[in-house]
Design brief:
Layout (H helix, E strand, L loop, with lengths): L1 H7 L3 H9 L7 E5 L2 E5 L35 E13 L6 E6 L5 E7 L3 E9 L7 E3 L24 E8 L5 E6 L11 E7 L11 E10 L4 H7 L14 E4 L24 E4 L4 E8 L6 E5 L4 E6 L2 E8 L2 E3 L4 E7 L6 E8 L20 E8 L40 E13 L5 E5 L12 H6 L13 E4 L4 E9 L5 E5 L4 E7 L16 E3 L1 E4 L4 E8 L3 E7 L2 H5 L3 E6 L1 H4 L6 H5 L5 H4 L11 H7 L4
Parallel strand pairs: 3-6, 5-10, 11-14, 13-21, 22-25, 24-32
Antiparallel strand pairs: 1-2, 3-4, 6-8, 7-9, 9-10, 11-12, 14-19, 15-18, 15-20, 16-17, 16-19, 20-21, 22-23, 25-30, 26-29, 26-31, 27-28, 27-30, 31-32
The structure holds CU-O-CU linkage and copper (II) ion.
Family: Belongs to the multicopper oxidase family.
InterPro entries: Cu-oxidase-like_N (IPR011707), Cu-oxidase_2nd (IPR001117), Cu-oxidase_C (IPR011706), Cu-oxidase_fam (IPR045087), Cu_oxidase_CS (IPR033138), Cu_oxidase_Cu_BS (IPR002355), Cupredoxin (IPR008972)
Pfam family, one: Cu-oxidase
């Protein structure tokens, strides 16, 4: 570990931490069924026993400022307890898979270079995991939080301490469960890495983190089986409401009789002071829905796109697809008053027909909040919405997404080229499935890919349904050429990397290398592939690990729209997965059931065995 990191020596801070790490301490011991789970501490700092893991809570409707910057990176200890609670995000009461009792989960904050040591205690009564969306996990692939790929799920009543450095990353991220559709039921929250050298730091006074999501009154344990019946002819489940940081509204006359429901949920209020400037960090954490974010009478200055500073440009409305993040600066320079904040689920991007689960949803697609100036009355705004200044169901226009300085490292010889086709099909039971290069992804929950590779399992022998692509050029440029052979748009996300977008094409617009954006590409980690269109991206193969590449529409993930990238397996295989991560695969009845194929968990009977919500 130590040796390897020094050898590649790309990340100064990381190797610094690890070289001191030889005196690393063992922070804790957990006991499972009488066996001990050994927990390694990979940190240079001994945790102060008087200051244990921080059981954080976050009020997303209070303005924040960045953490104090420190001379040297520090380790930040957070404790996330996963537990089911009854909540009424949009007025309708249901069970929510909460983090520290809240939804969205509390904000995780660090400064560039800091180490995050996050103790996740699973009290869900279901297996769980947490993925840190957008974090590269250099040297810590096993903390990427993907059951079947980088770990086995955390059994109920067990804690796993995730321990990774932010290295050179900064910007707006989020975390969420990667175990089935669990994040859709609530396990999601913001993750911010502040940057001392942020060129925009002086341009705003406060910030707000806005976690957008769609919301369903049924749990995913109920919803998933409904679309897994043979011959299902509908689309993805239609939500019941959009939520702005966990708050929405619902017309309860449409709720089933006997449900606890309140139609008069107050709109969430964001207070601003006149003539101050606010950075809004906007995260789309939805299961499915493309959102449009805007604030009446206040234009948005775009400054960050998924950890990349962009050239400042002004927009009225921000289209943001699932998994994506943006920072915008809002100038509170309008007359003192109340203005609508709009987190609108874009109906135009949500296919429906009367075979679709919840097709007749009473949803109001217009998620609303209030931007309230100090000194304004506590009244509802009557402000007017801006007209659209974007192309619906597509990513923000390139002219608003260009890096502050052109990123040129993707312009060079391509050492690995991969052709990918995305399609839908039917299995032998006429159940819908999603196919990436003709394979519907099935993870082996009880034996994660990283475990296999590190015990010298040859990558080429991985099961076909794990849909693996192998990259062996250390420091090379990989190019993925994706053809979306179906009518749906898909927001694709890659773990472990940002990628450069060479080409995005609509139906019939075939990629042509002469049109590739080699010199000044958009760089991000989640991109929308247009229905029947094309995408060409490049990334640098410099991060040994198993990285998921998948559509972020959770319903499509559950149909198998996932690929796994096996990056530099020859380096990865010399790594040692920490014992506590390995132990997750051994200590639990669920994981011992080797005959259980996860795809079949769609079947309601099997879901019923692993989940307690039915
Ligand atoms: Cu946001 Cu595979 O994740
Ligand atoms: Cu998709």
């Amino acid at each position: 570990m130590n040796f390897y990191l020094k050898r590649i020596s790309v990340l100064f801070i990381l190797s610094l931490l690890f070289s001191i790490g030889s005196s690393a301490i063992e922070t804790n011991i957990y006991t499972v069924n009488g066996n001990s789970l050994h927990l390694k501490g990979y940190t240079n700092e001994i945790q102060n026993p008087n200051k244990p893991y921080d059981d954080i809570k976050t009020d997303y409707f209070k303005p924040i400022t960045h953490l104090n910057f420190t001379d040297k990176p520090v380790t930040r200890y957070y404790h996330l307890t996963l537990k089911k609670v009854q909540m009424s995000p949009d007025g309708f009461e249901r069970t929510v898979w909460s983090v520290n009792g809240q939804h969205p989960g509390p904000l995780i904050q660090a400064n560039k270079g800091d180490r995050l040591v996050i103790n996740v205690t699973n009290n869900f009564d279901d297996p769980a995991s947490v993925h840190w969306h957008g974090m590269f996990q250099h040297g810590t692939n096993w903390y990427d939080g993907v059951p079947g790929q980088t770990q086995c799920p955390i059994p109920n009543d067990i804690s796993l301490v995730y321990n990774f450095s932010t290295t050179d990353q900064y910007g707006t991220y989020w975390y969420h469960s990667h175990f089935f559709a669990q994040y859709v039921d609530g396990l999601r929250g913001g993750l911010i890495v502040y940057d001392q050298d942020d060129p925009y730091l002086k341009q705003y006074d406060y910030e707000y983190v806005v976690v957008l999501s769609d919301w369903h009154h049924n749990t995913t344990g109920v919803l998933l089986p409904l679309s897994n019946v043979p011959g299902y002819a509908g689309f993805r489940p239609i939500p019941d409401s959009p939520l702005i940081s966990g708050v929405g509204r619902y017309n309860c006359t449409a709720a089933p009789p006997g449900s606890k429901c309140n139609s008069n949920q107050p709109l969430p209020v964001y207070k601003v002071e006149k003539n101050k400037k606010y950075r809004f960090r906007i995260i789309n954490s939805a299961a499915d829905g493309a959102f449009v974010f805007s604030i009446d009478q206040h234009k948005l200055k775009v400054i960050e796109l998924e950890g990349i500073y962009v050239k400042p440009t002004i927009i009225k409305k921000l289209p943001i697809n699932v998994g994506q993040r943006y920072s915008v600066i809002v100038d509170a320079n309008q007359p003192i008053g109340n203005y609508f904040i709009r987190g609108t689920l874009d109906k135009r991007c949500t296919p429906n027909n009367n075979a679709t689960t919840n097709f007749n949803s009473a949803i109001d697609w217009n998620g609303l909040g209030i931007l309230r100036y100090e000194g304004a009355e506590n009244t509802k705004p009557n402000s007017k919405e801006f007209n659209d200044d974007f192309k619906p169901c597509r990513d923000l226009n390139k002219k608003h997404s260009l890096p502050l300085k052109p990123i040129t490292k993707y312009d060079g010889h391509v050492s690995d080229f991969v052709n990918i086709t995305i399609a839908f099909g039917r299995d032998s039971n006429q159940r819908l499935e999603a196919l990436v290069n003709n394979v519907s992804f099935v993870p082996q929950m009880n034996d994660a890919t990283v475990n296999k590779i590190t015990r010298d399992f040859a990558p080429k022998d991985l099961p076909k349904e794990e849909n693996s692509v192998i990259f062996n050029h250390n420091g090379g440029i990989a190019e993925l050429y994706v053809w979306n052979n179906n009518t749906a748009d898909h927001p694709f996300h890659m773990h472990g990397h940002s990628f450069a977008i060479m080409f995005v094409g609509e139906k019939g617009q075939l990629p042509n290398e002469s049109k590739y954006d080699k010199r000044n590409p958009i760089v991000r980690d989640t991109v929308t592939i247009p229905g029947n269109g094309f995408l060409v991206i490049r990334f640098i193969t410099d991060n040994p690990g198993i990285w998921a590449f998948h559509c972020h529409i959770e319903w499509h993930v559950e149909l198998g729209m996932v690929m796994q990238l096996i990056e530099l397996p020859n380096i990865l295989k010399n790594e040692t997965v920490p014992d506590d991560v390995i132990s997750l695969c051994l200590e639990n009845e669920f994981q011992k059931r080797k005959t259980l194929t996860p795809r079949r968990m769609f079947n309601s009977i099997i879901i019923n065995e692993i989940r307690s919500d039915m």
